[in-house]
Amino acid sequence: MPDRVHALLVVRPDGRVPAAAHLRATLDALSRQTRQIDALTIVVCGGTGEVLDIAGTSGAEGVITAGSAVSFAEALRLATARLSGDAVWLLAQDTAPAPDALARLVGALEISQTVAAVAPKVVSADDTALIVSLGETLTHGGRRIGLADDELDQGQHDHVEDVLGADVRGILVRTSVWRALDGLDDALAGADEGLDLGIRARLAGHRVTVQPRAVVAVAGDGVAGLPSPDTRRRRRLRAFATRTAQLHRRLAYAPAGAVPLHWLTLLPITLWRTVMHLVAKSPALVLPEWGAGLVAAWRPAALARSRSRIRRARVAAWSSLSLLRISRSDLRTRVEADGDPDAAARPTREELRFFAGGGAWVVLAALVVSIAAFPALLAWPTLGGGALAPLSSTLSQLWANALYGAHSVGLDAAIPSDPFSALLALIGTLSPGAPSRALVVLWIAALPLAALGGWFAATRITSRDSLRILGAVLWALAPTFLVALVDGRPAALIAHLALPWLLYAGAVAHRSWASAGTASLVMVVVWAASPSLAPALVALWVLAVISTVVARGGRGVAQVVWTIIPAVVVFLPLAWAQINAGTPWGLLADPGITVSGGAGADAAGRLALVAGFPVDGLGGWEQLVSAHLPGLPTWAPALLLAPLAIVALASLLTPRWFVGAAALILVVLGLGTAFLAVGVSVAFAADGTPVALWPGAALSLAWAGVVGAALVTLDAGLPVRAAAARGVTIAVLVVLGAAAVLPLLASERRGALEITNGPDSTVPAFVDAQTRTTPNVATAVVTPLSSGAISLDVVWNGGATLDGQSTLLATRTSASGASVQFAGLVVDTLSSGADAPLAALASAGVGYILIPTLPGSETDAARATRLAAAAALNQNAQLADVGLTPKGELWAVRAGVVPRADAAASVTATATLVGVGQLAIVVIALLLSLPTAASRRLARQTPRVVGPRAREDDR
Predict the structure, then answer these.
(1) What is the pTM of this model?
(2) What is the pLDDT of residue 15?
(3) What is the 3-state composition of the chain as percent helix, strand, coil, each rounded to the nearest 5?
(4) Res 943 pLDDT > 70
(5) What is the mean pLDDT of the chain?
C-alpha cells in the first residue's frame, strides 16, 4: 500500500464560476477524506489575490504561481519536482472527491504492483447521477471513445476494471511511473491527456484500472479536462482540443516510416472532414477542424518530444493494446444505441399527403392546361421573341459564358458573368445535345412546376388539403407569371418558379442547417433571376434575423444569417465590376436581353400593378373589353381579384394574425418594389433607349403574400363548422382567379403570343457554319435605326445567345475607348469603303458584316442609311458579298481576319480564382442542404406548418 499520497491541485481562474468558490469546495472535500492526503501542492495559474489567500491558508506544503496561459500538463510539470510521496493524485479546482474516494483509489492501487494508475468514476457536479467519464478507449482510427460518457449511473458499469485510459481528473498514479512517463503530454491541448497517459503506461508494461466506487464530481469549469459544452465558444474549444489531440496522437503513435505519410494526408483528411461536417449540418466544426490540422502539422518539436517519451518508456508491443480497443461491431452498436431516447415521446409531423391530398392531381391538371394553352411549343425546337434567344449550341460555350472571361457579345476581353448565365448553363446542361431545347421544355413544364411550388409553399401555412390545392392553383394562375410565359421573359419565369421554394425553406431556416442550406441555394436562384428583388430580399432577411433574435433568444440566428451569404458571394465579382465602372445601380438590372414592355409609371400602369399585372392592358382584358363590351370600364376586370385581396386582409383578424401580418409584409415589399421598378431605368436597349426595370418579379413576391394571407384567413378565420363556407370561398377564388388570366391563357388563339419558333442562331447559317470550324471570329451587326442613325453590335461565333448577355455591358452609360475606336472603324468602312479601316476591323477579329432585316415597316431615313451602307460595302474589294439571307444582307472579309486571342494568363488566373470562390460557396450550401438521418429525424419532430397559433411554438 502506498505510504504517502501527494496531491497536486492546479487552479486557473478562467471558468464561468469564480475559481475561489471552486477551490474552497475542493479543499473542503479534501479535508473530509477518510484517508487523508499526506502532502498537497497547489499551482495557481494567473490567480487573483483571493485565490492566492485561500491557497496560502490551505495547509499546502507549497504554492507555485504561474502564468494564466499555463496548461494543466505544464502546471503539473512545475510541481513534479516537489513530489515526495509514493503516489500522485491529480486534481483541479473544480474536482470535488467524495469522502471515501481517495481510500478506494489507494485500495485499488495496492491490489497489484502492475497497476500504475487508478481512475475514479467522474460524475457531474450538477447531477451526480450523470457519469462524465468512467474509462476510455480508442477506435481503430484513433478516435477516443468514452466507455460510459453521459450515461445515468445505475451501477451498470461498476464491474469495469481494466481500461486503456481514463479522464485525467482525479486519477491516482504511482510516482515512479509518473516520473518514468514524464507526466502528461502538453501538446494534447487539454484533451485525451488521461487516455494518452494510460496508453504510455501500458506500453511501459503497466496496467490502468478504474474504481467505480471512488467518485469525483467535476463542474467542467477548471483547468483540467474539456470545458462543458454550454456555450458556442466552449463547444468550439472542445472541438479544437479534441481534434488537435487526435491528430497529434496519430502522428506520435505512428511508426517512424509512416509519419511523413500521415503528415501528407493531413490536408486531404481536413478537406474531407470539412465536407462531412457540412453534410452533418455542423458548420461550426469547420474552423476548429482547420485550426487543429494546422496546429498538428506545424509542431515538429512537440511531436519529437512526444515520440521520445514513448520510445524511452516502451517495453511492450503496440499490439498489446488491441484487446482494449473497441471493436467495430461494438462501436456500431453504441452508435445505434445513441439515438434520441425520447424520440417516441416527441410529437411527429403529419404525413405530407401529396398524392392522397390531391397535390399530384393539381400538377397533372396544370400540365394539361399548359399543353392546351400553348400546343405549338410541342413542335418548336427553340424559343424566340420577347427576351428569348437561343442558348449556346455546345455545353463548353454555355459554361464559358457562365464564367469570368470573354462573352459572345461585346469587345471586352474579360468581364464577370451574370449569375443568371450560370442558371441558364444548368438548364441547358439538362439537354446536352441541344441546350436550347431545354428552354422549350421549361416553358411547357412551367405551369405544373409553378403548381408544385405553390402546393409545397402552402404546406407551411395550412394542413388542409383543399387550401393547399388553392395555393397551388392561385400560384400557377398568377397574372405576372402568365405574362412572363406569354411575353417570353425567362428570368421572370425562373424567379416565379423559385420563389415559393425560397419561402418554403426560408420559413424554417432557423430550425436546421438543412433548411438554411436549401434556402441559401434558392436565394441565389431568385437573386440571379431578378436582381431588382435584392432590396426586398435583404429587408426580409433583416426582419428574419431580428425575429429570430427576439422570439428565440438568438437560437438559430446563424442559420438565418447564412441564407443570404452565398448570394452575396456569387454577386461579388459583378458588384466589383459595376462599382469600378461607376454604375452601381446596374446591379439591379434585369439579366438577359434588355427589352421594354413593362407597365408605365403613370396612373394606368400603377393600377395594373395593384391588380397584379406587370404590363399595361390588364393582360389583354382592356382590348377584349373595348372590342366586345364597349360600355364597361376598361379597368373593371381588375375587380375580379378584389375578393382575394379582401380575404387576404382579413388574416389580420384571425388567431394567426402574426402569420397573416408576415404574409402582408411580402405584399407591401413586393408592391413597393414594383412601383419603384417601373420608374427606374438602369439598362439600355440596342438602340440606346433606357428601359425600366421589369416589375414582374416584385409582383410575384406580392402575389405570394396575398395568397399566403388568404390561406391563413381560410385556415384559421372560419369556425370548424363552416366547412361549407370554406369550400364555397375556395371555389369562388379559383373561378375568379382563372377568369382574371383567361385572356393570357388564350394568347395563342388570340394571336397575342409574343414567343415564337425561335432561330437556332442570331447570325446567318453561313456564319454559324464557318465559325464552328474557325471559332473566335466576330460579326459586326449594323442596324439602321428609324432616325437614320445606326446601332452597332459585335457578336462572336454563332451569334448573340441568351447566356452570353451581360448586364455590365447593358448598363454602361458611356462607351469604352475600344468601343469608340471600333465604331469609328465601322463608320469609316461604311462611309468611304476604304481598305484601311476594314483591315483594322479584321485584325480585331471581325470576319463578317451583317445588315439585319428588321420586322415591320422601315422609315425613309432607315432605308436610306441601309442602302448607303450596302453600297459602300459592295464597293469594297476586300469584302465578299455573301448575299441576302433570312437574317439580313451579309458580307465576309476576304483575308486578314485574326481570331480573338485566348485569354492572357492573368485573366485565366482571375477567372479561376473567381470561379473557385463562387463554386466553393455554392458547394458548401449544397452540402448543408443535403438531408441526413439526423436532419430528417429532427424534421419529423417539428411541425410542418409554421406559426400554428399567434406565433410559432418555441421548439
Answers:
(1) 0.84
(2) 67
(3) 55, 10, 35
(4) yes
(5) 88
- Type of residue found at 474: L
Strands (E), 363-419: 383-384
Whether 569 contacts 627, CB under 8 Å: no
Which sign does the torsion angle of CA 799, 800, 803, 804 carry? positive
Question: Partners of 705 in the beta sheet?
Answer: none
Which residue has cell 437573386? 527
Beta carbons of 782 and 829 less than 8 angstroms apart: no
SS3 labels along 294-316 = HHHHCCHHHHHHHHHHHHHHCCC
Strands (E), 492-632: none
Give the list of residues 6+ apart from residue 268 with CB closer than 8 angstroms, or none. none
Q: Encode pLDDT of 809-854 as tens digits.
A: 889 887 777 778 888 888 888 876 667 888 888 888 899 999 988 7
CB 95 within 8 A of CB 26: yes
In the three-class reduction of DSSP (H, G, I as helix; E, B as strand; rest coil), residue 424 is classed as: helix
CB 838 within 8 A of CB 780: no
Round to whole Å and give the CA distance between 34 and 98.
9
Query: Using the 8-state DSSP alphabet, how is residue 152 labeled?
Result: B
- Give CA 926 to chain center in angstroms: 6
Report CA 62 to chain centroid distance, whole Å.
56
First and final C-alpha spacing in the chain:
55
The Cα–Cα gap between 295 and 289 comes to 10
- Distance CA(305)–CA(296), nearest Å, equals 13
Closest-CA residue to 780 (of 766, 798, 767, 794):
794
Contact 526, 692 (CB under 8 A): no
DSSP code at position 859: -
Question: How far is residue 237 from each of residues 284, 735, 762, measured CA to CA in Å?
Answer: 11, 60, 60
Question: Cα separation of 201 and 181, whole Å?
Answer: 7
At 675, which helix (H) or strand (E)? helix 657-677
Give me 22's grid cell. Answer: 471552486
Q: At what angle do helices 723-740 and 696-716 cross, to 10 degrees?
A: 160
Cell numbers at 880, concatenated? 465578299
Give the burial class of 71: count Cβ atoms within 10 A of its Cβ; 0-12 exposed, 13-18 middle, 19 or more buried: buried
Torsional class of 545: left (φ above 0), alpha (ψ -120 to 50), beta (otherwise) = alpha
Residue type, 723: A
- Greatest Cα pair distance, the chain, in angstroms, is 117
Q: What is the Cα–Cα distance from 11 to 27, expressed in whole angstroms? A: 12
d(CA 618, CA 601): 15
Residue 463 is placed in which grid cell?
A: 394542413
For cell 504511482, what's the residue?
174
Rounded to 5°, the CA angle 544-548-552 comes to 160
Report the alpha-carbon distance of residue 796 to residue 780 in Å, rounded: 9
Cell of 913: 480564382
Among the listed residues 184, 203, 181, 179, the one whose alpha carbon sits nearest the alpha carbon of residue 194: 184
Residue 677 contacts residue 670 (beta carbons within 8 Å): no
| pLDDT computed for residue 912 by the predictor | 86
Sequence length of the chain is 955
Tell me: the pLDDT tens digits for 927-936? 999 888 777 8
The whole-number pLDDT of residue 475 equals 97
Question: What integer pLDDT is reported at residue 877 of this predicted model?
Answer: 84
* Whether 50 contacts 11, CB under 8 Å: no
Spatial separation of the C-alpha atoms in residues 164 and 162, rounded to whole Å: 7
- DSSP output for 516-547: HHHHHHHHHHHHHH-GGGHHHHHHHHHHHHHH
Nearest CA to 164 out of 136, 191, 200, 144 is that of 136
* 946-to-462, 516, 805 alpha-carbon distances in Å: 8, 15, 40
Q: What digits encode the pLDDT tens for the residues 455-480?
A: 999 999 999 999 999 999 999 999 99
Q: How far is CA 204 from CA 77, 114, 312, 338, 389, in A?
A: 20, 10, 9, 34, 77
Tell me which residue of 338, 245, 230, 337 sits closest to 288, measured CA to CA: 245
